[in-house]
Amino acid sequence: KTIAFTLAVLATLHAAEGFMPVFAGSGLVTRANVLSRASHLSPRRKAAKPPYTLRTAQCVNVKMSQTFTESETWKDTDIPALLKEGASYFLDDPDVKFVPTAGGVNNLVQYCETSKGEKYVMRIYNNGGNTKRVRYEHAVLASLEPMRAKFSFQVPQYKGTLKDPAVTFVKLSSGAEACMCQMIPGTLPKDADPFILGKAAGELCKALTQCKVTEPCPTPPYFEVYDVHSAISKEIFYAEILKPGFDCMRDGALPKLVAELERLDERILGPEALKKNEGRYPMQLIHGDLHYDNVLVEGGKVSGLLDFEFAAEDWRAMEIAVCLSK
Questions:
Q1: Which of 251, 287, 296, 303 gets the most CB atoms within 10 Å of its CB?
Q2: How would you write 78-145 as a 3-class SS string?
């Protein structure tokens, strides 16, 4: 996990270092127009200062809380009963059936089919009771609603409760929140062309610049890589890679990785760099978790982008950095 974290950090910082602002003009950012327009631009061209400071006011001093693995969370839970309870808030159907999905690393996610053949996805959150994060996710998706018809893919459309169609998530007897959304066709990409994911990420990124979300953002920006989780800090990270578990890489890639990370640390996250880079990297609302486990493809195209749970105000470059990290 620490090796993976090292690579993710490197991807993040490299994306920020070489970042250029999104090109002006209409249409999607495609391979063709990037090549045609980038040929005369300096890779060091400084971006226009965005209307954000390096740390957004809504996310100051936020640090991600520890969550539990799926096995620890659900091992003593009557999962069928919990799923039935969750479905009862959204469907008037006692005969609803559930089938496990291939995804859902942190949360409990299962397909849901009614007695009439209608298909949904039932999601029960495993986030330590972080209602603020659930509320923010649903607010982000609600803000995308006016643009939904223009997308070349689908994003989750949460179903309102039977009691109040405007309410899209509920708290269960276990204390966990639950929601239900329309089923999006497609399968996990696995070895699909990564270009189609990049294109979809660019399309979503552009749309998110138009979103107006009034809910406070509960998720810290990923560009503060050593503050995104309670179990990590800069000191812990560098101490961890000195342990025997990394000896197998000691004569190989590790020294180069660490040297590059230290260079980028100083260049981007050092005290002087933070002052120098204030406002350099454009910030906006991003999905924040667009890797292959949160994407569906069908017929050679992206059919759905899932799981907006970690959406946050962040460096725009972080969106593609997350795509590159897995």
A1: 287
A2: CHHHHHHHHHHCCCCCCCCEEEECCCCCCCEEEEEECCCCCEEEEEECCCCCCHHHHHHHHHHHHHHH
Structure tokens at 260: 């590059």
Reported as a pLDDT band with limits 50, 70 and 90, residue 12 is low
Please report the pLDDT score of residue 26 as a whole number.
Answer: 35
pLDDT digits (tens, 9 = 90+) for 85-144: 999 999 999 999 999 887 666 789 999 999 999 999 999 999 888 999 999 999 999 999
The number of angstroms, rounded, from the C-alpha of 45 to the middle of its chain's C-alpha atoms is 27
Q: Give the other-Cβ count within 10 Å of 311's Cβ.
A: 24
Degrees (nearest 5) of the Cα angle 96, 100, 105? 135
Task: State how far Cα 216 lies from the chain centre.
Answer: 17
Helix axis angle, 2-17 to 254-264, nearest 10°:
40
The amino acid sitting at 77 is T
Under 8 Å CB-to-CB from 135, ≥6 apart: which residues?
Answer: 169, 215
Cα within 13 Å of Cα(61), Cβ side: 0
Compute the CA torsion angle 187, 193, 194, 200 (nearest 10 deg).
Answer: -60
Rg (CA), the chain: 21
pLDDT reading at 22 higher than 60: no
Can you say whether the dihedral through the CA atoms of 159, 163, 166, 170 is positive or negative?
Answer: negative
β-pair type (119-124, 170-171): unpaired
Asked whether the CA dihedral 220, 225, 230, 235 is positive or negative, the reply is negative
